[in-house]
Amino acid sequence: MARRLFELCGRDPARIFSPYCWRIRMALAHKGLAFEAVPWRFTDKQALAFANHDKVPVLQDGECTVADSWEIATYLDAAYPGAPSLMRGNAEPYLFISAWTDTVLHAGLARLIVSDIPPLLDEADRAYFVQSRQARFGRTLAEVTAGREERLPEFRASLLPLRHALRGRDFLGGAAPDYADYIVFGGFMWARVVSALDLLEPTDTIHGWRERMLDLFGGMPRATPAMAG
Amino acid sequence: MARRLFELCGRDPARIFSPYCWRIRMALAHKGLAFEAVPWRFTDKQALAFANHDKVPVLQDGECTVADSWEIATYLDAAYPGAPSLMRGNAEPYLFISAWTDTVLHAGLARLIVSDIPPLLDEADRAYFVQSRQARFGRTLAEVTAGREERLPEFRASLLPLRHALRGRDFLGGAAPDYADYIVFGGFMWARVVSALDLLEPTDTIHGWRERMLDLFGGMPRATPAMAG
Predict the structure, then answer these.
(1) ipTM greater than 0.85, yes or no?
(2) How far is B103 from chain A (nearest CA, A)?
(3) Could you list the pLDDT tens digit for every one of the 229 residues in chain A?
(4) How far is A32 from chain B (nearest CA, A)?
(5) Beta bridge partners of A64
(6) pLDDT > 80? residue B106
(7) CB contact under 8 A, A174 and B93
(8) Both ends of chain B: CA-CA distance in Å?
(9) CA torsion, points B64, B67, B71, B77, in degrees to nearest 10?
(10) CA-based nearest residue in chain A for residue B96
């Protein structure tokens, strides 16, 4: 049976933007596992009924169906021990990196880019997205991202732990990337695909790391349709 | 030859307060390695000349001398592979946890507790500490910690990644503590030994974790002389 990854996309199915789907897209490439990309949209809940889940990523791998990016990553290391490891036999410390990414990086990015997303969605998804996100933030999405250029220094300052963690090494995984890199990079791909906002200064250590990440796997991330340059 | 750990202390040699020394004190207990504690003070630079270093922790382990907490932790896993592992063969993701601890936890704690330290130091150390820290902060230490009670909610909010990382598990290491826990706990021991300030609310997930950490190794951390209750 085939290997299929359900991934969130915009009106254009090539515009893959969920940070959690990006974690798994990179993880599959890291392990050298080919897959068929199945475009999915927020309002396609029915398409995931087989997985008993309502969010992507969902991986169908032969007889196995796995939902949730963390579950998929640990599944991949367990199911393919001969392929390059994502977490080298110890997933625990990666949960901290994931917690930081969710609560600091994603939260910070959302306040900068969330209003850039609706124009990229099809009609049904746009209505769903705007309504659900406005309810979450308690204001319009334009209000959420208002004054974002002025808030960039504060966002960049919030990335200090990432900047420090990259000192003296090319990747969070060390000399080569591992799942720590894919966790954090997912956030930056989310932003890159939907927004033209310049998040990082070119002299930033994180900028250099993001460039190296964009070049991985034959430049697959860089080649993905994006609003950023 | 003996195993000796040089640790920063106050006037009272039992008042061990450096967060980096706490990382190693816990790491040695984790590995079941007994050691002789050698009290060290900021102005004892001469006592570390043998290590060609000017800061603690410094570990003397038979013929080996290792300085810097990160170097010591990786040394201990390499030198004692049969003892319980600190980082389970993959140190890379722990560097992110260390970077977060240095830049967020320690930086936040310093702004709350740094003025509590001088009264605990002997005369020579007090003069050194006040002068060097005032130069670092660009103001008096009393000014640095002014209004700290009002700033506690902001400090607690900055710990959100740690709070999320502890959801559904007892320790950052999973069911049992590992070096991720000792890295973060070092900051809390620093605060506990020097300051009576109530950093955490009793209902906080992090509070429960800190209680479990204080109970480790027969309650050794809890039994260390401290200003906190």
Answers:
(1) yes
(2) 6
(3) 599 999 999 999 999 999 999 999 999 999 999 999 999 999 999 999 999 999 999 999 999 999 999 999 999 999 999 999 999 999 999 999 999 999 999 999 999 999 999 999 999 999 999 999 999 999 999 999 999 999 999 999 999 999 999 999 999 999 999 999 999 999 999 999 999 999 999 999 999 999 999 999 999 999 999 998 7
(4) 21
(5) A61
(6) yes
(7) no
(8) 38
(9) 40
(10) A165
- Render pLDDT for B28-53 as a digit per residue (tens, 0 to 9): 999 999 999 999 999 999 999 999 99
| A125 vs B: CB within 8 A | no
Tens of pLDDT, residues B196-208: 999 999 999 999 9
Displacement of CA B171 from its chain's centroid (Å) = 17
Candidate from A90, A102, A160 with C-beta closest to B90: A90
Kind of pairing, strands B36-40 and B3-8? parallel
Tokens of B71: 């170097």
SS3 of residue B227 by DSSP: coil
pLDDT given for residue A157 in this prediction: 98
Quote the CA–CA distance of A11 and A125 in Å, as a whole number: 9
Residue B96 to residue A92, Cβ atoms within 8 A: no
SS3 per residue for chain A = CCEEEEEEECCCCCCECCHHHHHHHHHHHHCCCCCEEEEECCCCHHHHHHHCCCCCCEEEECCEEEECHHHHHHHHHHHCCCCCCCCCCCCHHHHHHHHHHHHHHHHHHHHHHHHHCHHHCCHHHHHHHHHHHHHHHCCCHHHHHCCHHHHHHHHHHHCHHHHHHCCCCCECCECCCCHHHHHHHHHHHHHHHHCCCCCCCCCCHHHHHHHHHHCHHHHHHHHCCCCCC
| Residue A166 pLDDT | 98
CA distance B106 to chain A (A): 12
Cβ distance A172 to B92 less than 8 Å, yes or no, reads yes
* Residue carrying structure tokens 């990523």: A57
Residue A160 with chain B: CB contacts under 8 Å: 103-104
Comparing CB atoms, the residue among B89, B102, B103 nearest residue A88 is B89
Mutate to test the interface with A, among B90, B163, B209 (most CBs of A within 10 A): B90
Contact flag B99-A162 (C-beta cutoff 8 Å): yes
How does strand A3-8 pair with strand A36-40? parallel
